[in-house]
Amino acid sequence: MGNSYKFILFGLTIIFISLIFYGFPDSPAPWFDEGINLGIVKSWLKHGVYSLEIGPSEFIKERSLLITTNYPLLLWIALSFKFFGIGLWQAKIVMFGFLFIFACLFYLLAKKYYGANSALMTLALLITFLPLYGNGKSALGEIPGLTYFLGGLLFWESEKKWRIFTAGLLFGLAAATKPLYLLLIVSVAIGELWIFAGDRKSNYKRWVLLASGFAPPLILWLYTLLPGQLSFDYLIKTWQLYSNPYNIENTAFVNFLRFFKESTPVHFGLLFGAFLFSKIFVKHYSLKKFEVILLAFIVLNLLFYLKTAGWYRYFFPAHILLFMLFPQALAGIMEKFGVLNWIKTRGSIILIAILAVVQAIVLVVNIQTSLYLDRTPRQFAEAVNKIVPQGQGILVIDFPEIVFLLNRDDVWHYLRANPHITFGRDLFAANQYPAYVISDVLPPGNKYDIKIDGGKYVLYERKK
């Protein structure tokens, strides 16, 4: 490894760390899903209840309908809150740790399977990808789940028993992080079947070790979600939520067209297309063992995305994994189809450098927008904490991030998790009008005046 390589690697590391800490702790601002996750941890530490508080000493009982990001992330945030206090920055530093470990594992895997140069190009593409910071710096499960997954891949191909068990354990933790990552179980099974098909001999001891590692995290995951009294109807509701969160139909074709019309899906399509093209026309279907698992998950994630509401976050895990596969695929294409010698030897490096620069430009242009940097939620919550006397009572409608940031115990929360699932009491329907309401619409009954107008967040005070 020459000095120029070390210099570039060092420079990329400094850029990555700088982007991680950019706008701390308001980049990105906490939002709906993150607010739920942080609220669960806050409730867990303050009251010993692993759920979301929706009123003084009132908690959501249907946890499987609420908790989508689970203990493999929330436990680390709880430890941070325990040592440093409950707050936004305390959660962000946990995510920064996951991001840094994720990038290191990404680099190490690429270097292990494709060499140092491909690893460097992979890292350059990764750290200039704007959604990495939108999804990765928020207290969400996407990056933590992938971190456990990549850690498992580092151990997976070993013949040593403790390494195989550790791989299974890390895969289990990845699957327990988010319901989406239950697809990893299928992906690993496909990888094992691929090995079996190639070797023509089964290895039951290996499978038992993997399953033994998988089992404890998944058993604990089930324990955190299932109620004391389990019913068949409850299981059906949970399955419906996991398989189709927004209970929508006929989205597959619309979402498929996005990969030809919208920039982020098109970007995904180009990366994925290059990998498939290289395997079909260059390497002639030659797949590394770990590539089988990655490819299986990418396809499964893509199929899952097609039936969702169409938000890019739903195929983000597959998208980010393609950065590991793309540089080597492009190098193979350039080597086979490059006409001039300099295209054969340097074409992939030049194209990846251009792509990284384009991604960096998109990042610089957009990272200061409100989607990636917004101090409003934290400042609004601080203003409410100062203005509203303790004990007056505040009803918060659909803003779990604000509930988390409010430092008080007199809060009721009415939460519409999606158009078909709500939590909390509708106080207005019961003709109850709390002293203060935080909402983005005027409460009914003409009983409130605006106290603080925070744009998206508005504090209403009941008329005297």
Automatic annotation (TrEMBL):
The keyword Coiled coil does not apply. It is found in: Cell membrane. One of its GO terms (cellular component) is plasma membrane. The keyword Lipid biosynthesis does not apply. One of its GO terms (molecular function) is pentosyltransferase activity. It is a multi-pass membrane protein. It comes from the Bacteria. Signal peptide: none annotated. InterPro entries: LipidA_mod_glycosyltrf_83. GO terms for biological process: lipopolysaccharide biosynthetic process. The chain crosses the membrane at residues 7-24, 93-110, 116-133, 162-195, 207-226, 265-282, 289-306, 312-334, 346-367. Keywords: Cell membrane, Glycosyltransferase, Membrane, Transferase, Transmembrane, Transmembrane helix. This is Uncharacterized protein. It comes from Candidatus Jorgensenbacteria bacterium GW2011_GWF2_41_8.
